[in-house]
Amino acid sequence: MDPYARVISGRDEWGIEPNWDRSYQYRSRVAFDDFDWEGDSPLEIDDADLVIYELHVRSFTRNENSGVKFKGTYAGIVEKIPYLKALGINAVELMPVFEFDEFENSRMHPDTGEKLYNYWGYSTVAFFAPKAGFAASGKFGMQVDEFKQLVKELHKEGIEVILDVVFNHTAEGNERGPSISFKGLDNKIYYMLTPEGYYFNFSGTGNTLNCNNPVVRNLVLDCLRYWCAEYHIDGFRFDLASILGRDPWGAPLSNPPLLESLAFDPILSSCKLIAEAWDAGGLYQVGTFPAYGRWSEWNGKYRDTARRYLKGDDDQLGEMAQRVQGSPDLYQWNGRSPATSINFITCHDGFTLADLVSFNGKHNEANGENNCDGGDDNLSWNCGAEGWTEDQGIKSLRMKQSMNALTILLTSRGTPMLLMGDEFGRSQHGNNNAYCIDSPVSWVDWSLLESNHLLYDFTKNLVGFRHQHKCLRINRFDDPGSKHFPSCSFHGTNPWQVNWSSESKQLGWLMSCDDDSTSLMDAVYVASNMAHYATWFELPSLPTEYVWKLCFNTGDIQSPFQQSPAPYLESGILVGDRSVLIFTASPRET
Amino acid sequence: MALTIDVVQGDVHVTITLSGDVDTKTAPELLSQLTALQLHALEQLRLDLQAVDFISSAGLRAIVFAKQKMPHESALYLIGASEQIVDTITKTGLAQAVRIVASVTEI
Question: The complex's ipTM?
Answer without folding.
Answer: 0.77
